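Hello Y.,

Per our agreement to keep a running log of every chain we model this quarter, I'm adding this entry. I've kept the format consistent with earlier entries: sequence first, then predicted structure.
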Amino acid sequence: METPGLLVHGEAAPFSTALRSLLNNPQYSDVCFVVGQERQEVFAHRCLLACRCNFFQRLLGPKLGSGMPSPVVLSTVPAEAFLAVLEFLYTNSVRLHRHSVAVTFGLGQLQERCLAFIEAHSQEALRTRGFLELSAPALLSLLRSDKLRVDEAELVLAARSWARVGAAVLERPVAEVAAPVVRELRLAVEQIVEAWKCHALRRGDVARGAPCRRRRGTLPREHHCFLDLPFK
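Predicted structure for the entry above:
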């Protein structure tokens, strides 16, 4: 039986530094993205993106052909957030800032890190342009968190601003844009009434659903005693 060879590990830091030097570098790149409303050009490498992310594998598949394809336009993605995603794909690390937090492209590990960052800096994140430019799925994943450090009233106002911006961009009614995310807002008056009813009828399990569950940043209110639920 042949003896297994010796597995040699190189240092991770120089490898990461070398890959970071390729980030948004037109040299040797074979794909160009036009990103955001500013239409910023971002250069990348198809093989690296495709092997690291299923989204880019589908986007940059054989249909683009060989050679330098036409630029891929991503007008709804903020350039700073897109560059943060690419940095993570190239180097497996990224430094997140409140202006560059990205929840997109199906990157589970990066999504978790971004969500944790927003949970810890909820009020600051809600005031950024990046929040207003979140996709509906991204905002839904955010609103499902119990750990947001912001009162629900502020979250409702932020969601309303998000819907108004989306309505203007998409040229659709505000109510239509807001519909998918409104269900994730909590402790509305009618939901509080339902919680009281469930409590009175000893059907507490019904009142323990997400709409009647307090977030980490929810301010104490008198009616919370009827919910009989702890803070997360």
